[in-house]
Specification:
Elements (H helix, E strand, L loop, with lengths): L9 E4 L4 E9 L10 E4 L5 E7 L2 E7 L11 H8 L4 E10 L5 E8 L7 E7 L13 E4 L4 E9 L5 E9 L2 E9 L14 E3 L6 E9 L5 E9 L2 E9 L14 E4 L5 E10 L5 E8 L5 E8 L14 E3 L6 E9 L5 E8 L7 E8 L10 E2 L2 E2 L1 E7 L2 E11 L4 E10 L4 E10 L14 E6 L6 E8 L3 E8 L5 E11 L2 E8 L7 E9 L4 E8 L4
Antiparallel strand pairs: 1-2, 2-30, 3-4, 4-5, 6-7, 7-8, 8-9, 10-11, 11-12, 12-13, 14-15, 15-16, 16-17, 18-19, 19-20, 20-21, 22-23, 23-24, 24-27, 25-26, 28-29, 29-30, 31-32, 32-35, 33-34, 33-36, 36-37
């Protein structure tokens, strides 16, 4: 049995607007199948759910990245899914009582076909005894999975996903009582299968509108042609025929060779943003965003023509998560990989205006819209999930990276400030974490950081033109653990933008944009 290794570190970069905590897990906890998901509780704690070697697992972190030992998700998941196999996780939501509902798929036989599942925890990860089935399995078709949950005002629960029946995939809806019992007067035995959509419709994202209507996004394939599909239903399971054509909106996206449709979000004016991955004409894997109006019509004002392929600077790019910010700006989290870098990848965070154009206030240099990316040396990305803390003006991102050797999974928690123009952070290996104070700077920069081993550190401050202003710690050997430096900025240096450049002998190099305040 492999030993479970837990490693905690903290990186606070106040000026660049991110902080980072890493946790390593053994291969016994390595995600396999399904979709890793991440949600922020109302009290600020951070929940994550994943599949581990075909078994379900969940955990909880405090906002500072420390493990919450009061959360019983690991123990509860073993209790709930003891007799289930091939578990996958797809979506999670929190109801008004702070109960945690999560769905996906599982089979009750190691060789059997998986079917959609729904379970509920109390706020601390204990199985909810009011949810009688513990694991409510929705068997529909030959196989099925749940892709989303909506809790209705009367506490009834809508579950949506896809089922495989008669040789193709179709959307389904199921409605349950608050205690998990199937509502038998809903469709047939509590389930409605929508066979009206031609071809294969594999639902990947579910959103609930403020009026209670439910939106399902899918990648639809008919006769070899793939389209972006969005369908809207009332809470009683009937289609909203005022949406699109007969309740279904489709976007052929002829210029995009669609690979998957994976995420969906709603803007304040009711427009529907859909994201996923596609292939460029050159064969590169790219991220795309598309928009429909609130009535299910392709939004021709978005990105210059309904769907926009993001021109990322990498050969292979994958969308892992997406959210809509206050003001309707769009944030995308994912991974990118260059052709000559094997399976290694860079985490990327992008921000767009509400109309799908790169946000010019976000990015560094020519990479308009790109906020942060760094090289995860020796790891392969599993998922990058993001959660919004609007009141704190922050975004939390939880990243899961598999080590190439297969021995460990690295969980990385990062926070980003919404009101900061982020630069590019390129970390060949995670040897340094640091904290800069105060922000904005005046005549002194206090720079504290942690090293995981002894090494030489150099740092210098450059002006806007790239000319050195002051250098410090030029090749100074520093010991493993916490270190700090203080640099005095010449009083004659004018207010404005400066660059702090940090490097170590082991190849770490980071460039952080600083702003020097003027005199009061």
């Amino acid at each position: 049995m492999k030993k479970c290794i837990v490693f905690l570190s903290l990186m606070l970069v106040a000026i660049a607007g991110n902080s980072q905590v890493s946790v390593k897990r053994s291969a016994a906890m390595r995600p396999s199948g399904g979709r890793s998901i991440f949600v922020r509780q109302p009290d600020g704690k951070l929940l994550f759910f994943t599949s581990t070697e075909g078994r379900f697992f969940s955990g909880r972190l405090f906002a500072n990245g420390e493990n919450d030992d009061a959360y019983n998700g690991a123990r509860s998941s073993r209790q709930l899914f003891e007799d289930h196999y091939n578990c996958s996780t797809r979506a999670v939501t929190i109801d008004k009582w702070n109960r945690i509902l999560f769905c996906g798929g599982a089979s009750i036989d190691s060789a059997g076909a998986p079917h959609a599942t729904l379970s509920r925890y109390g706020r601390n990860g204990d199985p909810d005894n009011d949810f009688l089935a513990r694991v409510q399995q929705i068997k529909v078709g030959d196989s099925s999975y749940a892709a989303g949950i909506a809790v209705l005002p009367d506490e009834k629960i809508l579950v949506a996903g896809s089922c495989f029946s008669e040789g193709r995939w179709s959307p389904f809806l199921s409605r349950l009582q608050y205690n998990g019992d199937r509502e038998t007067n809903f469709g047939t035995g509590g389930v409605i299968v929508d066979n009206s959509i031609p071809g294969n419709a594999k639902v990947s994202a579910v959103c609930q509108q403020t009026d209670g209507k439910l939106l399902l996004a899918a990648l639809n394939e008919t006769g070899g042609v793939r389209t972006i599909s969005v369908t809207r239903y009332y809470a009683d399971g009937t289609k909203d025929t005022m949406f699109g054509i007969g309740g279904n909106a489709a976007m052929p996206a002829e210029k995009l060779e669609l690979t998957d449709v994976s995420h969906m979000g709603l803007q304040s004016d009711g427009k529907i943003i859909v994201g996923g991955t596609c292939r460029s004409p050159e064969g590169r894997k790219s991220i795309f965003l598309a928009s429909f109006t609130q009535w299910g019509v392709p939004d021709t004002a978005f990105g210059g023509g309904t769907a926009v392929r993001i021109a990322a600077p990498y050969h292979e790019n994958t969308l892992h998560d997406m959210l809509i910010l206050p003001g309707d700006k769009i944030v995308v989290s994912g991974a990118g990989r260059n052709a000559n870098e094997g399976v290694n990848s860079r985490e990327i965070l992008l921000r767009f205006g509400k109309e799908g154009t790169p946000d010019p206030q976000y990015g560094y240099g020519t990479l308009t819209g790109f906020g942060m990316h760094f090289f995860a040396n020796g790891y392969v990305p599993v998922a990058h999930n993001i959660a919004l803390a609007a009141s704190e003006r922050k975004i939390y991102r939880l990243s899961e990276l598999n080590e190439l050797s297969g021995k460990e999974t690295l969980l990385t928690l990062t926070t980003f400030l919404l009101d900061t123009s982020l630069g590019v952070i390129d970390v060949p290996n995670r040897k340094v974490q640091h904290h800069i104070y105060p922000v904005p700077i005046r005549n002194t920069v206090r720079f504290s950081f942690d090293l995981v081993d002894d090494q030489k550190v150099s740092a210098r401050l450059l002006d806007k033109a790239g000319k050195p202003v002051v250098a410090f710690a030029d090749g100074k050997v520093m010991e493993e653990g916490e270190n700090s430096l203080e640099v005095k900025i010449p009083p004659t240096s004018p207010a404005g933008v400066y660059t702090l450049e940090i490097s170590t002998e082991q190849g770490y190099k980071q460039i952080i944009e600083l702003t020097k305040a003027g005199d009061r």
